[in-house]
Specification:
By secondary structure, the protein is an alpha/beta fold. The chain has helices at about 10-20, 35-40, 55-60, 100-185, 190-200, 200-235, 245-255, 260, 280-300, 330-335, 350-360; strands spanning about 5, 25-30, 45-50, 70-75, 95, 240-245, 265-270, 275-280, 305-310, 315-320, 365-370, 375-385. It is about 50% helix and about 20% strand. The protein has a five-stranded parallel β-sheet with strand order 2-1-3-4-5, covered by helices on one side. Strands 7-9-10-12-11 form a five-stranded mixed β-sheet, covered by helices on one side. Helix 6 crosses helix 7 and helix 7 (about 245-255) crosses helix 9 (about 280-300).
Length: about 400
Amino acid sequence: MTNVYVYVSDSALSSDISNELSANYSVETVQSLSDIDKASEALRQSILIFSFEYLRDVVSCCPVGKAGGPALLCIQEVSDSLDERLDDYDSSVASIFKPFSINQLIGQVENLFEVNQAKGQVESLESQLIQSEKMAALGQLAAGVAHEINNPVGFVSSNLNTGQRYLGKLTDALESLKDACEAEVTGAALLLHATWQAEHQVPEIIEALQDLGEENSDGMNRIRDIVKDLKEYAHAGSNKFERVSIEQLLKSAVNLLKNEIKYKADVEFEFGDVGPIDCISSQLSQVFVNLIVNACHAIEDFGKITVGTEDLGETISISIADTGSGMSEEVQRKVFEPFFTTKPIGKGTGIGLAITHSILERHHGQIRLQSTLGEGTCFTITLPKEQEDTDEDED
C-alpha cells in the first residue's frame, strides 16, 4: 500500500484528509519533515500532502525530482507564487486550491500515485535495459574467450593422443623384451627381467599412465563440448529458421549449466526421438536455459529435473519438470508478466519467462504451466515441426 504523509498546519483539515485517505492508503500525520528525510526508503512510492506555508521546508527536505523521493501535493490559498518559489527546481509540484472537496484531493492523490508508479516502471525498465546490455556484452566476451580456449585445447588434445600412442609403443616393446627373455634357455634372463619389473613396478606404472591418459582425454573432450555449447549459446546467430535437432539443443543447455545443476539436481532425459524441426536455434537455446535455471532455483536442497520430448504428429512437445517448491495460483497467473519475479533482489530480473513466451510466440508455439505448491513445476512447450516462412528472415 502506498504511504501518504500529511504535513498540514490546520489540524482539523489534516484529520479529515487522513480519515478519507486511510481506506486506500497508509496515512501518517507528519510533525517534522526531518523524520521523513531520514527514512529515505519510506519516500519511495509515497505521496506528501503539505500546506503552502510549508513549501520552503518541503522543497529543502524533499527537492522536486529527487531520486526515490515522494510525489508532492501542495494545498494553497491562492493560485500565484507557487511557480515563482519553484524556479530553482527541475519540475513543478501538483497543487490544489482552497476551497476544495475531499473528492478533488483524492483524485489528485490517485493521479500522483499513477504517475509515481509509471515513473518507477520506467526506472525499472531502464535498469533492466542496462543489465541486458551488460549481459549482451558479457555474451560476446564469453564467445571470444571460448574461441581462444579452442587453440590450447586443440594442441593439448593432440599431445595427449601422441602420448597415448607412444605409451602403446613402449608397452609393446616391453612385451617383446619379456618374450625374448622367456626364449632364453637357461631362464636367467627371465629371472632378471622379473626382478627388474618388480623392483621398478613397471606394470603398475604402465597401467596408471594409461588410466591417466584416458581421464585426461575425457576431460579435454568435456572442455571442448563446453566451449562448443558456450559459443553456440552466446552467438546471436541467424534470424532464419533452420532444421535443428531439439534434443541436441536440450543436451547442450544441460551441459552448459552442468556446474549449477550438479549441486541441485539429477537430470533425467526422456526423449521420444522427435527428430529435427524448423527453429531459430540460438533463441530456443535461450528458452531452454531459462527454464532449466528456474528449475534449479526452485529446488531448495537436492531434487530431480526431468527433460522430455514427444512426437505429436505435426507438432512436438518439450517438457521440463522439477521437484522444487512449486508455485501458488497467484504466482502462476503472473509468472509470464515482464519484471515479475519471486526471487530476491540481485538474483532475478523477472524478464526470463517473458522473453521465453515472446520467443515461443515467434515460433508459433505455446507454453503451458502446471505447478503444485510444495511438489514441483512442469513447463510444457508445443512447437510445430515446420514453419511457413523458413526461407525468410525474421526481422
